[in-house]
């Protein structure tokens, strides 16, 4: 059974390798159509308190249609679908149906006020595992992507953390999402930071990608959903980085993802991740 599952994953990854440029083109086209208008946008609050705009829905509709045309046998799970549809799509994914997991606009809070830090994130999951992912930042025209076992890329240039200098935690730039962290952890980081400096950019997918690009070296977020991290986590790991949750459980690409919200801790290399986790867990 496991051998058949691995064979299916390898076959699916080969399929997407041939079609990855088409997916990247689709993501770019949809983003250019909807996300480069500038200015403020009308927005509503969802039941979970997050913002949603008409652009979120338009982006998701266009991405879903484009993916269905290219991959008619694949499933689709988008952030703006209702919960019942999301749960049904996830069950099909775990049963073996290749499924596209999409956040059509990651960083809606930024987008709605014209702050130019947001992204589109698209991931292909097979058996609950990510085999291909794209994160596109239209404001900077930066497209990150990765395929399982085939590395991570930024606008056609290979991303690799292997030869980057191994920085001590105290010299690192961190991305920290304070509001979703346990209070004691957030207080410790704010009052006695173990890093050199901290930022919070407002797009989970870009947080992951900026670690992969070595723009920041460590990252922590208290609660993110499947569509937030599925592509970014793959991009970081394929670049040579490492990640875990706040409980210290390491992430592995051959482990199925979970549909429930989870914490995320990431670093440019595993030794730095261990130091970072030590600081975070000392206060949790």
From TrEMBL:
InterPro entries: Inositol_monoP_metal-BS, Inositol_monophosphatase-like, Inositol_monophosphatase_CS. GO terms for biological process: inositol metabolic process; phosphatidylinositol phosphate biosynthetic process; signal transduction. Mg(2+) binds at residues 79, 103, 105-106, 228. It comes from the Bacteria. Belongs to the inositol monophosphatase superfamily. PANTHER family: INOSITOL MONOPHOSPHATASE, INOSITOL-1-MONOPHOSPHATASE-RELATED. This is Inositol monophosphatase. It comes from Guyparkeria halophila.
């Amino acid at each position: 059974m496991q051998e058949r599952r691995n064979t299916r994953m390898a076959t699916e990854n080969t399929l997407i390798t041939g079609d990855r440029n088409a997916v990247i083109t689709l993501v770019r086209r949809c983003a250019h159509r909807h996300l480069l208008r500038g200015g403020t946008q009308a927005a509503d609050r969802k039941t979970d308190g997050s913002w949603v705009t008409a652009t979120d829905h338009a982006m998701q509709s266009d991405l879903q249609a484009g993916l269905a045309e290219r991959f008619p046998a694949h499933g689709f799970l988008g952030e703006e679908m209702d919960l019942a549809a999301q749960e049904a799509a996830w069950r099909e994914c775990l049963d073996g149906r290749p499924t596209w997991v999409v956040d059509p606009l990651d960083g809606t809070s930024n987008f709605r006020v014209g702050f130019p830090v947001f992204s589109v994130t698209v991931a292909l999951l097979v058996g609950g595992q990510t085999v291909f992912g794209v994160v596109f930042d239209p404001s900077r025209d930066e497209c990150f992507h990765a395929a399982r076992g085939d590395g991570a890329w930024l606008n056609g240039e290979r991303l690799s953390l292997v030869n980057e200098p191994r920085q001590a935690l105290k010299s690192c730039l961190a991305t920290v999402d304070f509001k979703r962290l346990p209070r004691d952890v957030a207080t410790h980081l704010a009052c006695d930071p173990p890093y050199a400096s901290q930022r919070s950019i407002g797009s989970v997918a870009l947080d992951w990608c900026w670690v992969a690009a070595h723009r920041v070296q460590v990252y922590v977020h208290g609660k993110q959903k499947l569509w937030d991290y599925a592509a970014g986590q793959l991009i970081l790991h394929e670049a040579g980085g490492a990640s875990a949750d706040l409980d210290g459980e390491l992430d592995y690409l051959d482990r199925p993802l979970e549909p429930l919200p989870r914490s995320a801790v990431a670093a440019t290399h595993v030794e730095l991740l261990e130091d970072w986790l030590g600081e975070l867990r000392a206060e949790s």
